[in-house]
Design a protein that fits this description.
About 2% of the residues have low confidence. The protein has 16 helices and 12 strands. Helices cover 48% and strands 12% of the residues. Among the domains are: 134 residues, Rossmann fold (3-Layer(aba) Sandwich), CATH 3.40.50; 56 residues, no CATH class. Strand 2, helix 6 and strand 3 form a beta-alpha-beta unit. With 440 residues, it is α/β, with parallel strands linked by helices. The strands form 4 sheets. A 5-stranded parallel beta sheet has the order 2-3-4-1-7, with helices on both faces. The longest helix has 32 residues.
């Protein structure tokens, strides 16, 4: 007896399962980059700590600095970091901002060195009022100090975490007078423990040979390519692209990702285009799986073994359930009126099938009885377009095809779609379920 062909969904599920840590790192990296979109590119890429040429996207360890120790102590609250260039202030600020972003908060980074005293940057100042967490970096001029202190004071009073980063603690105005970075009101709110001067050896080095394309470096391109390779959807089954915000949906969260939908479709298309021969289909699926495994660093033999386990798992589960049911029947005391073999078989089947399957069997029995009666008139099965207008829809998900139905309220308004049947093998099967429901 020849071995059953492994379905594309089981191959895709095996690949996603074995490569899940790598795919999860890729997803987190793209979400982190998207969340820190307002951070200058070089600071953002260095702060995320994933080397531009990394294949496994494993971040390097943080360098322990005085600035990082302080923001960890302050988090999630506010503070002011003052220190020379290269001592790790910006890297610490990226860590602090990322902690808020990963908690689902809105964040922003502003370069105060570009702020002008004549109102040209009022729009930027207004944008800095609303985010939950704000980093004010690169303060270079005395002219913007009043505006920065008012903004920081208002945010601290409103309970919004704000981190100010500067190379200098005092500036000189046009008359040569010294002006403090933090005015008395803001200093009183933060207290001395949260306005700190830090030091340390310079961490600056030559920039890596990382070609920047459309604002993204090599680590983002690697992460994006991996997600495009297998496909990623949110928990609702809606496809999403790496770092892309849909206009009608919020940014997907760190845990809101399902991998493998595109890979499953790719395997299915390859098998269908290979021809009717099972051997041709097997070779086509194997070729696609081999290419994906090479990119993900997987052994195709491990994937094949896991895919077979997933493929035969339902059979194993059914066999175990059957053995358990037979053991339970065997353990029951014998009664004078013993059931016949067909009755025992019917009882066993009734115990094993699901409630939905029992309903389907009852409908089939009633349908058969009705078709044999004299009152039977063959129903007119509507077209798929007619079924769509009635509220039915077939959609593909990582777990297979699903049939949904949108009922109408008493006022005639369309209600949200509800799942009718899931884990279907094809679109034709989904529409067959719709036709049967309409006929019933």
């Amino acid at each position: 007896m020849s071995e059953q062909p492994i379905e594309p969904r089981h191959i895709a599920a095996a690949i996603v399962e074995l490569a899940h840590p790598l795919l999860l790192r890729a997803w987190h990296y793209t979400i982190d980059e998207h969340a820190l979109a307002t951070v200058p590119g070089d600071i953002r890429r260095q702060g995320l700590r994933v080397p531009h040429d990394s294949r496994d996207l494993v971040p390097v360890e943080y360098i322990d600095t005085e600035a990082l120790a302080l923001v960890r102590e302050w988090a999630p609250g506010s503070g002011v970091l003052i220190g020379p260039r290269g001592c790790g202030k910006s890297h610490a600020a990226v860590w602090w901002l990322l902690e808020h972003a990963r908690a689902g908060r809105t964040v922003r980074w502003t370069q105060a060195g570009m702020w002008a005293p004549n109102g040209e940057t009022d729009d930027e100042a207004r944008l800095c009022k609303s985010p939950h967490a704000l980093v004010i970096d690169d303060i270079m001029s005395v002219h913007a100090l009043d505006k920065i202190n008012k903004l920081a004071l208002k945010r601290v009073d409103d309970g919004k975490p704000t981190l100010v980063v500067s190379n200098l603690h005092t500036f000189h105005d046009g008359d040569g007078r010294r002006v403090a970075l933090v005015d008395d009101r803001l200093f009183d709110r933060l207290r001395d423990s949260r306005v700190r001067v830090v030091s340390g050896p310079s961490l600056r080095s030559d920039p890596p040979d990382d070609p920047i394309i459309r604002g993204h470096g090599g680590a983002w391109r690697r992460a994006s390519a991996l997600l495009e390779l297998v496909g990623v959807t949110d928990a609702a089954g809606t496809p999403i692209r790496a770092g892309e915000r849909m206009p009608d949906r919020p940014l997907p969260g760190y845990a809101d990702a399902v991998f493998g939908g595109r890979l499953e479709l790719r395997l299915a298309v390859a098998a269908r285009e290979a021809g009717p021969s099972p051997e041709q289909q097997r070779r086509a699926k194997t070729e696609v799986a081999r290419l994906v495994c090479d990119e993900l660093g997987l052994d195709v033999r491990d994937v094949a073994a896991r895919a077979r386990e997933l493929h035969y798992a339902p059979s194993y589960s059914a066999r175990e359930a059957l053995d358990a049911a037979l053991a339970e029947l065997a353990s029951r005391p014998s009664s004078p009126a013993r059931q016949s073999l067909s009755e025992r078989e019917a009882a066993r089947r009734s115990e094993l099938v699901s409630a939905r399957e029992r309903t389907r069997l009852q409908l089939a029995k009633l349908r058969a009885e009705y078709e044999e009666s004299e009152l039977y008139t063959p129903p007119v099965i509507p077209t798929r377009e007619r079924l769509r207008r009635l509220g039915y829809a077939a959609e593909q998900r990582p777990s297979g095809w699903a049939l949904t139905f949108r009922p109408r309220s008493l006022q005639g308004k369309m209600m949200p779609p509800q799942d009718v049947e899931t884990w279907l093998r094809s679109e034709d099967e989904a529409w067959k379920v719709a036709e049967d429901m309409y006929r019933d």
